[in-house]
Structures are given as structure tokens and as C-alpha cells.
Amino acid sequence: MRSSRTRASVIMGCLDVRSPATGPWRSRDYLYSQAGEAPGAEWGAYVSSLVVAQGSRRQGVGIALIHAAKAAAAEHWGAAWLCTHVAADNTAASALYAKCGFEALRDNSLEQPALSGAAELGGPRATYYASTL
Prior knowledge:
Blueprint: E1 13-18, H1 28-35, E2 44-52, H2 61-77, E3 81-87, H3 91-99, E4 103-107, H4 113-120, E5 126-132
GO molecular function: acyltransferase activity, transferring groups other than amino-acyl groups
Protein name: N-acetyltransferase domain-containing protein
Domain N-acetyltransferase: 1-133
């Protein structure tokens, strides 16, 4: 998104969404194995990163990025759901995803291979979220 307040272009936020063909999040079976339940669709996409500039927070930038990611995942990849995970103590991110229609699955970061090392080193636990498109 670009700010119309100044003449210079300003990056207010960015989102990285992965197609069903990349990473381990490519199938409903994988989501079942990691989160214990699935949003009921065959193929999904994964939000691996969502960042909003400090000065642009609480202005709808994150919501707009998530809605754009949902539309792009459905249109370009035929995804029927979108999922992500956030640190369990990140209440702002959890509230944002809930506001965008995501449902929390279950807290299971110790079972997630990508996060198990972080958890063993005292890193944050994660909560998985999913939303049908």
C-alpha cells in the first residue's frame, strides 16, 4: 500500500503468502497432522510473514493485506483456505487474524518441526490459525 499523505512513496506493510506447492503446508493432511483439525478444504496457502510499519499500525493496513492475500490465493492457486501461525503471546497478531475470519486451531509448536528447535531453546510457542476462502 502506498501512502497518499506525502509525495514520496512509503511502504506501509508487506505480506508473504506461499502457494500450496511450496513448503510443508501444501495439503489438508499436513494441517491435520500438525494442528489436529483442518478447515475442510483440499488445498490451502500459507502466510509466512506479515509486517506493518510501526507508524502505519491500527490503520487497516494488515486487514487489507490479509484480504488481498486471501483473494490472490483463491484466484491464482485455487486455494480454499489460508493458514498461518503466530507466537502464542502475540496478542496483536492473534486479534488481527481473528478480525479477518481466522480461527485458532490449537497450540502445538513443539510438534511443528520448523518451530521445535526454537521451543527447545526457550523460544515462543505458536498458535495455528486457518480461514476458509
